[in-house]
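Letters spell out the chain; backbone shape is given numerically. Take this protein:
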Amino acid sequence: MLASDTPAVRLLEHLAGVVRLARVLASAHRPLDLAGLDDLAGRLCAAALDLPPEQGRALCPDLVALLGELDALAAACGGPERAGA
């Protein structure tokens, strides 16, 4: 079982909260500054890599859920077609 006080879990919870808030704001057509998401995601990846393999595997379902939140944020922002990609 993964302890809830590990840096990886704390970063995951923080990033998930930021993404959920950003999605709500994007859905309300409010301006967003998402510049810090890359840094948070990088720190989360580094913390996850520092976990022992068993704890890393235990974090996988939460990481998959975060990916779903990020996909929902992208959709709320209009996706790649709105960004001109």
